[in-house]
Design goal:
The complex is a heterodimer of chains A (423) and B (180). Chain A is an alpha+beta fold. In chain A, helix 8 crosses helix 9, helix 10 runs antiparallel to helix 11 and helix 11 runs antiparallel to helix 12. Helix content of chain A is 66%, strand content 10%. By secondary structure, chain B is mostly helical. Chain B is 65% helix and 0% strand. Chain B is globular and about 55 Å long. The chains are: A alpha+beta (423), B mainly alpha (180). The interface between A and B is large, with 32 and 51 residues.
Chain lengths: 423, 180
C-alpha cells in the first residue's frame, strides 16, 4: 500500500467512523457567564500572540546567552584559573592545572595514552613530569624524536611555571642521563633564568648554550641518546676511551662556560650603554640600537664559534697523552734511522777489509819477502789510506765512524813499521 | 498530488452574529465544522461518547466566547484550539502527559466502517500510534490543515510536528504491510 492509498483509506474510514452527530439543544439564557480563568484557559485571552517581534527578541536573547556563555567559559578556562602544559616529544600530552593542582592529564595522540595510564592526578606537578619523562624514556621515544622536547605553557602564572617545569625537566633528564633539546614556549632552556641556580637541580645535568640538556661528563654518551638497558654495555665499550676524552671534554666545557660568561658580560655592557643613551636618543637612534643589537648578537655567535674552534685546537695540542705518543713515535723513528746507518757502516767495513786482504795476497805472490814486506807496508799504508779516504768520501755524515776507521789504519801502519824494523 | 481533504471554509461574520445571540448562526457553524472538531476530540479521548460530550461543550463555549474572536482569517484553527484546551482542562492533563488509554477498543465503534482494509487502518491508527502522532495525521490528512497551522494549534515546534507526522505514517504503512 502506497502513501496515496493509505491517506485515501484513512480519510474514508474516519468519515465512516464519525457518521453524523446531531447537536444537542441548549438553553442559551441558562448558560452562566464565562469566568476570567475560563477565558484564559480556553480562549487564551491575555496571552501574547507570537508575532515577528517575539521571535526576534527570542533569537536575540538566545544569541546573548550564547555569547555570554562562550565568553565566560573562555575566561574561566584560559584567563582566570586554568593553565595547561603541553608536552610534545612524539607522544604529546596536555596537563591541565587549576592553581597548583592537576585537574586533568589528557593524551593528544595514541602513544600518549599508554604514557599517562595510571598516573595519579593528586600528585604534584614535579612528580607527574618526572614520571612522564621517565616513561617516555623507557619506551624509547626520545631516540625516535632525536631528543627534541617542546613544551608549551598557557594560562595563568606561565612565567613561574616555566621556571619550575624547566628545572624539573632538567633534573629528570639528568637522572635518566638523556641529552635532549628542550624548548619551553619556543624558548631554549638556557634562556630561562635561574635554572642553574635552583638548589633542587642535580649536579649531573648541564644546560648548554644551544639549549640542550646533557648528562654529566661521566655519562660517557654525550650527544647521543642511550637507552638505560643498553647503557651499561655502551658504557663499558666507551670506558677505554674515556680517559683520553675526559680532558677534551673538560676543556670544551671550560671554553663554553667562558664564552657564555663573555656573552653575558657583553650583553650587560650593551645594556649599560643603552641606559645611558636612552635619555638623549630619539626614535631613529632606537632603531639604530635595534640594528646594533642584531649585529652584536651575530658577532657574539661568531665569537662563540671561533672560541670553540680555538678551544678544540688547544685541547688537541695540549693533551699530554698525544704528546707522549708523538714523542714515542719520534724516538722509534730515530732508533730505526740509527739501526739502518749501523747496518750500512758494517757492510762498508766488510767490503773495505775484503779489498785490503785481496791486495795484500796479490803483492806477496809477486815480490820478495823483505823488500816485498817494506814495499807491501808502504803499499798497504797507501791502500789502507786510500780505503779510508774512500770511506770518508762515501760517508761524510758518520764522522765518528771515520775517525775510528782512521785510528784502525794508523794502528795497522804502526804494526807494519814495527814488523819492518824487527826484520 | 495533494491528498489532503479540502479545508472547511467558514465565514468570519458568523461569529459576530453568534455574539449577537443568533442561534441560527450557531447551527450553521456547527454543521460546517463539527466533523473536524469531533475527529480531533476522538483522537484525544479515544472514546466516542466522551468526544461527543466534549463536542457539545466546545460549541457551547464558542457560543459564549464568540465576542472574543478576533478575525485573523483562520476561524477553524481558533475553534480547534478551543476544543483542545477544553479537553486538556477537562482531563487536567498537559500536552506532554498524553497517553493511550488501555480499554478503548470497546469505546470506538470500528464496526461503523464497512470495508476491512479501512477498518484495519483506523484500528491500527488508534492502537499503535501515539496521541501526538495521531492528532497530527488527523489534522493534516483528514482536516487539511497545514503543518504550520498544526504547530500553532498544538503548541508544538514545526520540526517536531513534521517528524511526528512522518513517523506516524511509517508506522501505519508498516502495520498495513504486515497485515497483508
Amino acid at each position: 500500500m502506497n502513501n496515496h492509498d493509505l491517506k485515501k483509506g484513512l480519510n474514508r474510514g474516519f468519515d465512516q467512523l464519525i457518521g453524523h452527530i446531531d447537536r444537542k439543544p441548549m438553553d442559551a439564557d441558562a448558560l452562566p457567564a464565562l469566568s476570567e480563568q475560563e477565558k484564559k484557559e480556553l480562549f487564551e485571552v491575555g496571552k501574547p500572540h507570537k508575532t515577528l517581534a517575539y521571535h526576534v527578541y527570542r533569537a536575540a536573547a538566545v544569541l546573548a546567552i550564547f555569547l555570554f556563555l562562550t565568553g565566560y567559559l573562555t575566561y574561566v578556562y584560559q584567563v582566570r584559573e586554568y593553565t595547561s602544559i603541553h608536552i610534545k616529544v612524539n607522544p604529546s600530552l596536555t596537563i591541565r592545572l587549576k592553581g597548583s593542582k592537576i585537574v586533568r592529564i589528557k593524551a593528544d595522540n595514541k602513544d600518549a595514552k599508554s604514557i599517562i595510564e595510571g598516573i595519579d592526578h593528586k600528585g604534584s606537578l614535579d612528580q607527574t613530569i618526572d614520571i612522564i619523562l621517565k616513561r617516555i624514556n623507557d619506551r624509547g621515544y626520545f631516540n625516535r624524536s632525536n631528543g627534541n622536547i617542546k613544551i608549551k605553557i598557557r594560562g595563568k602564572d606561565r612565567e613561574q611555571l616555566k621556571k619550575e617545569v624547566a628545572a624539573q625537566v632538567q633534573k629528570t633528564l639528568g637522572e635518566i642521563r638523556v641529552t635532549a633539546q628542550v624548548q619551553i614556549n619556543q624558548e631554549n632552556l638556557v634562556d630561562i633564568a635561574s635554572v642553574k641556580k635552583d638548589k633542587n637541580l642535580s649536579d649531573t645535568a648541564q644546560v648548554q648554550s644551544d639549549g640542550t640538556v646533557t648528562a654529566d661528563s661521566s655519562s660517557k654518551n654525550k650527544g647521543k641518546y642511550t637507552h638505560p638497558e643498553n647503557e651499561d654495555t655502551a658504557g663499558s665499550k666507551v670506558n677505554e676511551d674515556t680517559s683520553e676524552t675526559t680532558a677534551i671534554k673538560d676543556t670544551e666545557k671550560a671554553g663554553e662556560e667562558n664564552t657564555a660568561s663573555e656573552s653575558k658580560r657583553a650583553a650587560n655592557e650593551m645594556n649599560d650603554q643603552k641606559d645611558v643613551d636612552n635619555s638623549d636618543q630619539s626614535y631613529k637612534e632606537n632603531l639604530d640600537q635595534g640594528n646594533e643589537k642584531k649585529n652584536s648578537k651575530k658577532s657574539d655567535i661568531t665569537r662563540k664559534t671561533k672560541q670553540k674552534k680555538k678551544v678544540r685546537k688547544k685541547s688537541k695540542e695540549t693533551s699530554p697523552k698525544k704528546k707522549e705518543i708523538k714523542k714515542k713515535k719520534a724516538k722509534k723513528k730515530e732508533a730505526r734511522k740509527k739501526e739502518s746507518k749501523k747496518n750500512t757502516l758494517k757492510k762498508q767495513r766488510k767490503n773495505s777489509s775484503k779489498k785490503v786482504k785481496k791486495k795484500q795476497k796479490g803483492k806477496k805472490n809477486s815480490t820478495s819477502p823483505g823488500s816485498k814486506k817494506s814495499s807491501n807496508a808502504e803499499k798497504d799504508d797507501g791502500a789502507t789510506g786510500q780505503a779510508v779516504k774512500e770511506v770518508g768520501t762515501e760517508n761524510n755524515e758518520n764522522i765518528d765512524e771515520e775517525s775510528s776507521l782512521k785510528e784502525g789504519t794508523d794502528e795497522d801502519q804502526e804494526s807494519t813499521e814495527e814488523k819492518d824494523t824487527g826484520q | 498530488m495533494d491528498h489532503r481533504k479540502a479545508r472547511v471554509v467558514i465565514d468570519e461574520a458568523l461569529f459576530q452574529r453568534i455574539a449577537g445571540g443568533d442561534s441560527k448562526a450557531l447551527d450553521d457553524l456547527y454543521e460546517l465544522s463539527y466533523r473536524p472538531i469531533f475527529a480531533l476530540l476522538l483522537s484525544y479521548t479515544q472514546n466516542y461518547q466522551d468526544a461527543e460530550d466534549l463536542l457539545q461543550e466546545t460549541f457551547l463555549k464558542i457560543y459564549q466566547g464568540a465576542r472574543l474572536y478576533k478575525p485573523r482569517g483562520n476561524p477553524m484553527a481558533w475553534m480547534m484550539k478551543i476544543a483542545r484546551n477544553l479537553y486538556l482542562s477537562y482531563y487536567h492533563v498537559s500536552e506532554r502527559n498524553l497517553t493511550n488509554f488501555e480499554e478503548m477498543s470497546n469505546q470506538i465503534p470500528f464496526d461503523n466502517i464497512p470495508q476491512a482494509e479501512e477498518r484495519l487502518l483506523i484500528e491500527t491508527m488508534f492502537q499503535t500510534l501515539k496521541v501526538e502522532e495521531r492528532n497530527i495525521i488527523v489534522l493534516h490528512i483528514m482536516q487539511g490543515f497545514k503543518f504550520r497551522e498544526i504547530s500553532d494549534i498544538l503548541d508544538k515546534p514545526l520540526g517536531s510536528v513534521l517528524s511526528s507526522y512522518h513517523r506516524g505514517l511509517r508506522k501505519l504503512k508498516k502495520a498495513s504491510e504486515e497485515e497483508e
